[in-house]
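Obj.: predict assembly geometry.
Materials: sequence records (below).
Method: joint structure prediction, all chains together.
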Amino acid sequence: MIWIIARREFSAMFLTPLAWVILAVIQTILSYMFLTNLDNFFLLQPQLIQLENTPGVTDIVVTPLMQVAAIILLMVMPLLTMRSIAEEKRNQTLSLLVSAPLSMTEIVLGKFLGLMLFILVLVSMLMLMPLSLYLGTTPDAGKLLSIYLGMLLLLAAFSAIGLYLSSLTENQTIAAISTFGALLMLWIIDWIGGSIEAGHSLLAYLSILQHHQSMLEGVFDSSDIVYYLLLITGFLILTIRQLDRERLL
Amino acid sequence: MTEALVQVENLSRYYQNHCAIKHLSFNLEAGEVLGFLGPNGAGKSTTMQIISGNLAPSEGEVSIAGHDILEAPRAAKQHLGYLPEHPPVYRDSSVDEYLKFCARLHRVPRGQLGTASDRVKQQCGLETVGGRLIGNLSKGYQQRVGIAQAIIHDPPVVILDEPTVGLDPIQIREIRDLIRSLGSQRSVILSTHILSEVQATCDRVQIIRAGELIYHASIESLNQRRETSIRVALRKTIKIEQLSSLQGVDHVDSLEDGRYRLFFAPDSSPDALVAAAAQQEWGLYELIPEQQSLEDLFIELTQDEEANAI
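Observations (raw structure tokens):
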């Protein structure tokens, strides 16, 4: 049942040009970035050879690339998630799902899974660039895997938040802007720096950037995974509760 | 014990402090078309939404084929097809894709997807538009797609919320024929504010006003209950008593130009009138049976209530 909704959700994204355009734009910008990074690497290579314990090609080319990718996707994900529930409310098609023999949980999980399928396509396409490095050198496979997982988890968290904010409104623009605001806030929440000593470690823990950064560097810490899983399940539960609550209002 | 297909008991629903429906109870038997009639804002759509599980009731119970909508929503919804006020169609998918998706949602087995969608397309007259995008279809066709969606899993109960709103007269007639054909195989609840629609399609009628059930009866007994009147035109001027003393006549209104309206008791025929007119040479040249329409009854009932309320 979840799978049926996920499939419809996934194919609906490709019915409009939006998904294609997003994939094309991101791929173009990031491949340009990739080439620039690669160029820098060739410039630096003579000096790197003389150093001991040098950063490898993965650290110099792939990690910065994915940092940029994360920031671009922070701006793009709201555009993908905004329609998922808000559009159904606006077009009054949500009642089709609600009056079908499905639970709210199945509906929400189906929507989330549909977004995840798109994310899988998106991140896999991005990962083709680092994989192309195998043509000339051997990048750090463990790091690449960690980066891949890190990107998937980050975008899954983005879409869970986006899904919730999309369930609050009928208006797609409002859903997009509030999602963008929420994601940005989660990103910059630890910028407050040392001025609040006690709260800083908490704020740093809340910041999505911190967790993402460590995974990009190949540090696979279970507390990062827990952070993402908490964020995702938390917002999915909020979405389910929101849709259930609307029947009572 | 024979259990009704849909049982609604003591249903109430509040929107904040506003009470949309109060203490509504009714049953729907198998193979029956129930007309749910009321002015705008009477609580028809709210009732439909509660029965279909789109809204939670504030009080009361709804069960479909013996399954409570709140306690066993999955089993209850499996027995139900619902067309909301606005057909819940995805404008960007084609009719075939959409119907297949709906069939899967309602757990139609994989092997029967094709036959189920062919069956409803044939029933709703959608054979020629299968490949077209729903967004490009006319309102009437979108409405049919909405009905097709409601019957794709062959449910014993179908709920249609104002299915003919915004359609042209020809489309309305087609949709009514469709509803009548549905009624021969399953139970249908039809909500509308168009009275002739109920007369044309339903077995039983229920009138709701301001959230309360004010009248319910079968269409037959409704037709019987209604007084029959006859309008006659006579060339000769006669005394009104001559008419009102005729057998079976309740009372007589005098109209202009030698015309009279005679009210008969139910189940009486105007034989006496015709006989008297012929014998006494009243010059009867016009005899038009008038039926009090559901419209009149509706206005009568709703206004009575208003008068009582004041």
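Conclusions so far: The CA atoms of residues 44 and 191 of chain B lie 6 Å apart.
To do: check interface contacts against the pulldown list.
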